[in-house]
Amino acid sequence: MAPQAPDSAVKDDLLDDLTPQEQAELVERELKINLRGIISNLRNLDWSKVVWRNLIMFALLHIYSVYGLYLALFHAKWRTIFFSVVLYFMAALGITMGAHRLWSHRSFKARTPLRVVLALFQTIAFQNDIYEWARDHRVHHKYSETDADPHNARRGFFFSHMGWLMYRKHPDVIAKGKGLDLSDLENDPVVMLQRKYYLPAVVTACFVLPTAIPCIYWGEHVVTALMVAGFLRYTIVLHITWFVNSLAHWVGNKPYDKSIYPSQNSVVAYLALGEGWHNYHHVFPWDYRTAELGGLVNYNITCLVIDFCAKIGQAYDLRTVTPEMIGRRVTRTGDGTYASMTQKAK
Fold first, then answer.
1. Are 272 and 236 spatial neighbours (Cβ–Cβ below 8 Å)?
2. Residues 160 and 299 reside in one and the same domain
3. Whole-angstrom distance, CA of residue 50 vs CA of residue 316
4. How many CB atoms lie under 10 A from the CB of residue 175?
5. Cα separation of 258 and 26, whole Å?
6. Helices H, strands E: what count in the chain?
7. What is the per-residue pLDDT across 99-136, written as a single tens digit (0 to 9) for each?
8. pTM to 2 decimals?
9. 231 within domain boundaries
10. Where are the beta strands (DSSP E) in 27-74?
11. Residue 300 falls within a domain, yes or no?
12. What is the number of domains present in the chain?
């Protein structure tokens, strides 16, 4: 089974090395640009740990995406734009509903047809295979904001956003990842089939087909199709996913637990199909809604899709949290913003 709550005993040990100032920063921080701090960090950076392949690939990806944005605004056909938006939702659901809520947290169960579709959508997203994505995410929850957290927010906004993918993993991340029970993933034929054929599958699903379909069916220029439906769409999905690890760990209120970084961030929720209610999610990670409230008004598109799949028999055993349990936690550890937040949401 997926770990459903942080390992407090081990996590406390990992936090012992923090100074009182660093621990205080967990409660009070603000998102600001400090140029002197950035320059100082670059000077003190251990450049031997930089993953240069990833850094170069991300640099090229963003250059292509800027060109893709230009083509989208001035040259691409409307069908290509619409197709790119559809691919965005498919890839996003592959992450939010598939890799995250189904395979990382086991917050609901899905029948084989739905699991196959979600695995395909997750492949379009190109964010590592399901097995690796779920493993890293489980480590993130179990050891959140420690050196064992792959995208530890204590190491700065940029690191938690995308820097962690351009820097070698901390030894604790690797060690704790090896200690997790991943037997549920290893016994899932859909997960392991995708992992076995991931490289050819991801190249085909993320770039080849998104380029070929516009060219074949409505005569889009091959470069425009590749740059818009391929690179630009892929980059947008990446950043929106990364915002859950960065922005939702920096900005927002904390009605369920004021002592942790994850926050309620409506902007991230809107962009990431309901993944921005992050304070709730880290307190109750087994809830399939990843929020107390679902529905379109709360930007929880993923929850609506799961509910629909449940109605047609493809999703079942949807796990939630009782209002009584939520109320007790709000009273015990919340920051006092719960009443105003829920009144506004409803």
1. no
2. no
3. 43
4. 13
5. 9
6. 20, 2
7. 999 999 999 999 999 999 999 999 999 999 999 999 99
8. 0.89
9. yes
10. none
11. yes
12. 2
Could you tell me if 258 and 27 are in contact, meaning their C-beta atoms sit under 8 angstroms apart?
A: yes
Which residue stretches of the chain have pLDDT < 50? 1-24, 27
Of the three residues 245, 267, 300, the one that is the final residue of a domain is: 245
User: In the structure encoding, which two tokens stand for residue 301, read together?
Assistant: 């598109």
- Same domain for 289 and 184: no
Q: What is the pLDDT of residue 40?
A: 74
Q: Domain range holding 293?
A: 251-346
Last residue within a domain, chosen from 245, 278, 306: 245
Distance between first and last Cα of the chain? 33
> Tokens 């936690």 map to which residue?
329
Same domain membership, residue 289 and residue 186: no
Contacts of 118 (CB under 8 A, 6+ apart): 93, 94, 97, 98, 102, 110
Burial of 239 (0-12, 13-18, 19+ CB in 10 A): middle
Q: Dump pLDDT digits (tens) for 246-303.
A: 999 999 999 999 999 999 999 999 999 999 999 999 999 999 999 998 888 889 999 9
**Angle (CA) 294 296 297, round 5°:** 90
Same domain, yes or no: 289 and 181: no
